[in-house]
Amino acid sequence: MIYLFCHSGGRFNDRISSLIAKVSGKVELLGKVGILGKVSPEFISSHLDQLKDRGYLVFPSALSTEVCDRLMAFALATPAQVRRMDDEPETAGKRMARYEPGNPLAVRYDYSPATLLDNQDVQALLADPSLIAIAQAYLGCLPKADVLSMWWHTNFHSHPDSEAAQFYHFDMDRLKWLKVFIYLTDVGPGDGAHSFIEGSHRTGAIPANMLNKGYVRLSDNEVLSHYTDAKQVNFCAPRGTVIVEDTRGLHKGSTVEPEGTSRLILQLQLSNSLFGATYPAARIGQVRSPALAELLESSPSIYDCYRE
């Protein structure tokens, strides 16, 4: 799939995705209210055009302070995997530890999808009608929830780390998808802001000389020599901000500067199918969110990735 994407400039993904859209059903969400607002035809159309054109949407402070506080408390109390860094052996990625503010052990800490799936606030976000409505409109079909993650980026060192996704790259886990990034900390210029090249998600927008390298990390100089500085969007924003993005476009997490503050981010993904990469199995156990319980009853296939 990566080979076909790179050699077709994205046309292969477009054609298969259009076929999926023709045979897939949809869920009715009009009138429901989510963290991004009330779902209506106007809500969908106003955001869909920008998403198709630019590749991203930003909703500042969309997630409430109370939910941010609970997810922060969860993150500080829950052991995470200390991700291996570029200069470490493979065995270094097997460490588990709680993140201690001001005393990081590595650049990145990752929380397991299984642990996240048991959290009521995460379950509610997975069933949020405004997020599902935007994804459904963009994908043209009933979305599939997958690739759930949450992580810290820290100031353990000041140079970018490829294992922590701090170099530009495109994603290619699925045929077509949207990622939802939720800032759980305030993110300023030195705090590891997420960066995206506007419009690079569109078919043919990544130049052939980059695609010919395959699925690799790219330096800032290499990327910015092709795109103007105005196309590089650095998402500095308050906690609770929601970024909806087609990460087929070039993106990265910036390095946290020595005096910067560690960044905590929650990520959801909504895809048009589960074809592609495989991940460790994670299942929904106890359903703690009424919204999730409702969708598991009415549209269970959204959560095929997380059901027995």
Descriptive overview:
There is one protein chain. Helices cover 29% and strands 19% of the residues. It has helices at residues 2-8, 11-23, 41-54, 65-77, 113-117, 120-126, 129-139, 208-211, 220-224, 290-298; strands at 33-34, 37-38, 56-59, 80-82, 95-97, 108-111, 144-153, 177-183, 194-197, 232-235, 242-245, 251-253, 263-271. The chain is globular, with a radius of gyration of 19 Å. Strand 1 (33-34) and strand 2 (37-38) form a beta hairpin. The chain has ten helices and 13 strands. It has 308 residues and is an alpha+beta fold. The strands form three sheets. Strands 3-11-8-13-7-6-4-5 form an eight-stranded antiparallel sheet. Strands 10-9-12 form a three-stranded antiparallel sheet, with no helix packed on it.
Q: First CA to last CA: what distance?
A: 27 Å
The main pleated sheet reads as: 8 strands, antiparallel
* Strand portion: 15-25%
Low-confidence stretches: none
Topology as a string of helices (H) and strands (E): HHEEHEHEEEHHHEEEHHEEEEH
Structural class: alpha+beta
Write the layout of secondary structure elements.
Layout: H1 2-8, H2 11-23, E1 33-34, E2 37-38, H3 41-54, E3 56-59, H4 65-77, E4 80-82, E5 95-97, E6 108-111, H5 113-117, H6 120-126, H7 129-139, E7 144-153, E8 177-183, E9 194-197, H8 208-211, H9 220-224, E10 232-235, E11 242-245, E12 251-253, E13 263-271, H10 290-298
Antiparallel strand pairs: 1-2, 3-11, 4-5, 4-6, 6-7, 7-13, 8-11, 8-13, 9-10, 9-12
Helix pairs in contact: 3-7
